[in-house]
What we know:
Helices cover about 40% and strands about 20% of the residues. It starts with a helix and ends with a helix. The protein has one domain (about 30-170): Glutaredoxin. The strands form 2 sheets. The protein has a 5-stranded mixed beta sheet. Strands 1-2 form a two-stranded antiparallel sheet. The chain has about 180 residues and is an alpha/beta fold. The chain is built from 5 helices and 7 strands. The model is unreliable at about 20-25 (pLDDT under 50).
Amino acid sequence: MLLAALPLVALLGLVGVFAVTLRNPSTDLPSVLVNKPAPEFLLPPLEQSGVPGLGRTDLIGQVSVVNVFASWCIPCRDEHPLLVELKTRTGVKLLGINLKDEQANAIAFLDELGNPYDAIGADRNGRASIDWGVYGVPETFLVNGDGVVLLRHVGPLDRTSLDDLVSAIRAEQGGS
């Protein structure tokens, strides 16, 4: 009888672990890039976006934020107004990586919600996003003027994570 109940007990244990994990998703996933140089990459522009493409050289010289997004990503749509606010509040160089998206859909997304990006690279095959260690969209990275990744946020920004990011940007910019 005890042996017959063992699979049920194991199943209930797994369900419990999954339930706890789903209730408390971590946006603090480890990244081998934090405190290391951003990967080498060069992406063509998202045509008709009005901004240039994106490469590693664009990360050099000033603090920047790299945001990985896609028009098919519902959390990206929810996050987008906060990216517009981030740009307004800090003036930070905001760079986008558009992941595996149809150009027309990405342009419609930006036309509808606004384009806060200074540059957008079209990562059509997802290779650059893999090099960045992206698990899924959206993800956001803070990069210093030397091209070193300082912070990684997995998932959509919310009010708290936006305020934390603004503080980190201001600290990196020297309190300005």
